[in-house]
Design goal:
Blueprint lengths: L1 H34 L20 E7 L6 H8 L9 E7 L5 H14 L4 E5 L6 H11 L5 E4 L10 H5 L8 E10 L6 H22 L12 E4 H6 L10 H11 L3 E12 L5 H28 L5 H11 L4 H21 L11 H22 L3 H20 L1 H12 L33 H22 L10 H20 L3
Helix pairs in contact: 1-6, 1-11, 1-12, 6-12, 6-13, 8-9, 9-10, 9-14, 11-14, 11-15, 12-13, 13-16, 15-16
Length: about 500
């Protein structure tokens, strides 16, 4: 009986934590809706006056990007900004033949009058954070725009972002990510779906009420003095962007989020690339929770509500661990429920998951209908996409939970870049990409076993109890079965 009580308690705690996170998302939705009704007046530089146009440095941190370097550099030099007030730093930590081809491209652009520098380090200490920090030493600009190798800003991007720094308190201007290959596959569609929610509901919902948000590592601009004042880039976590963002906001720097400025980028098309990106983001989130939790709680400059939202923000990735716990324990819970009638009252806690799912469904619908409309056809498409996303997100829960646990327990690991593909059409082949990992993680085997485990959960629905089965958890187990099945078989087929 002791084991059953432990299972019920752990299961209930995980469900309640997920419910709390869902309530926070609902609060962000209310903030988002209110923000759409308020005027957004901010002081801006007058770009019609040449004297008010500030000097800008663009930093391009790259590592072995042979497939996208040509596209990146040709796009960056199209930015509409005075050449005499623009510097481009290619922070190249590459170790392959892309170094030579990049050098040739840069030399060609230099001959055309662009102030572009090819900066290479002798080691990758600090990884991306180290490269950004080293480039900052000689950066001429008052403002530092950063783009990853797969981002393609529009020509007017600087003229739509830099003016907001007229407000001396603004330390960062962040733009919304777009997706050039959103409809390439199921995998890219669900990634776009999740990121769209982050870049609307979460970023606007937090920013509109003065809660902490994060620079997203790319497609944004920093005030150089803000970076220095906050302690500069540090490479002790895998998400250096989140780390510096919190240190800057704890020093009272304001962040300006521009939902209406979209910066297109490429989503990972191979599941191995998506796995490495997810691992880095989720482990980095847990690392930053450990690093920033006490600083946030001790800060006298921020409200209790901002502290709560900050802690939940830093614990975002830990929700995957709660989902995994709920999923694994749900099958024993099914048997306990039907074995011990006197414990039936404790199973009302199961309704927390249904309520949480409903809250997520409502929040994401508000974001989806803004870009896709609210017609019946759009709603039906949304339902299919939401449950596909929800299933596959749960299928990643083992992989992401391992990342989260490593982050919380302080296990160090290298910064593993996400391979870029330069995919433009459905016919483009990505399997010849030389940067893809060829080995299959042992975690994939366990994901296959979990697929079978949740298949057993669906079977159990027909045989438990003496009333002809119990199908309350059947939809949940079906989504888990499909989610883990998708991740398992995609991970195997990507190596074929």
């Amino acid at each position: 009986m002791l084991l059953e009580i432990i299972i019920i308690c752990v299961y209930s705690i995980a469900l309640i934590l997920i419910f709390m996170y869902a309530l926070a998302q609902l609060n962000l939705l209310f903030n988002y809706i209110k923000s759409q009704k308020t005027s957004k007046n901010s002081p801006e530089f007058d770009f019609s006056n040449a004297d008010e146009i500030p000097y800008v440095t663009i930093q391009l941190p790259v590592f072995n990007e042979i497939y996208v370097m040509d596209r990146l550099l040709k796009n960056i030099v199209l930015l509409d900004y005075p050449k005499d007030k623009l510097e481009i730093q290619v922070l190249d930590d590459s170790t392959d033949e892309s170094v030579e081809s990049t050098a040739i491209l840069i030399e060609t652009l230099q001959e055309k009058g662009f102030d572009i520098q090819h900066i290479q380090r002798t080691n990758r200490e600090g990884f991306k954070a180290g490269a950004l920090k080293e480039g900052l030493v000689n950066a001429k600009g008052e403002y530092i725009a950063i783009f990853d190798a797969d981002f393609l800003p529009q020509t007017d991007w600087l003229k739509r972002t830099i003016p907001f720094f007229r407000d001396e308190a603004v330390g960062v201007v962040q733009t919304r990510w777009g997706h050039i290959n959103r409809n390439y596959s199921v995998l890219t569609r669900i990634q776009a779906f999740a990121l769209d929610a982050h870049f609307t509901l979460e970023q606007v919902g937090r920013n509109s009420k003065g809660h902490f948000i994060n620079f997203n590592g790319t497609a944004g601009v920093w005030r150089k003095t803000c970076i220095i004042d906050a302690g500069n880039w540090e490479g002790d976590t895998l998400t250096e962007d989140l780390d510096l963002s919190y240190r800057a906001q704890l020093k009272n720097w304001k962040f300006k989020y521009l939902e209406d400025v979209e910066t297109p980028a490429e989503l990972p098309v191979a599941i191995s690339a998506a796995r490495s990106q997810q691992f880095r983001w989720n482990k980095g989130g847990a690392e930053n929770f450990q690093k920033m939790m006490r600083r946030v709680l001790k800060s006298k400059n921020i409200s209790a509500k901002t502290k709560l939202h900050s802690l939940l923000h830093l614990l975002n990735s830990t929700m995957f661990l709660n989902v995994l716990i709920v999923g694994i324990l749900s099958i024993p819970m099914l048997y306990i429920k039907n074995e011990y009638a006197h414990l039936k009252m404790y199973f009302y806690v199961m309704s927390f998951f249904v309520i949480s799912t409903l809250i997520f469904f409502i929040c994401y619908w508000f974001m989806y209908k803004k870009s896709h409309g609210s017609s019946l056809k759009s709603f039906v498409q949304y339902i299919a996409l939401f449950f596909t996303f929800f299933s596959i997100a749960m299928g990643f829960s083992l992989h992401n939970s391992i990342a989260v646990l490593e982050g919380h327990f302080g296990k160090r690991s290298d910064f593993v870049r996400t391979p870029k593909f330069n995919i433009k059409a459905l016919s483009d082949n990505w399997k010849t990409n030389k940067y893809l990992r060829k080995n299959i993680s042992v975690n994939v085997i366990f994901e296959g076993l979990l697929m079978l485990y949740f298949g057993f959960g669906m079977y159990s629905a027909f045989i438990v109890g003496d009333q002809g089965g119990d199908f309350g958890l059947f939809p949940f187990h079906l989504m888990l079965f499909l989610g883990f099945g998708f991740v398992f078989f995609k991970s195997l087929s990507s190596k074929v």
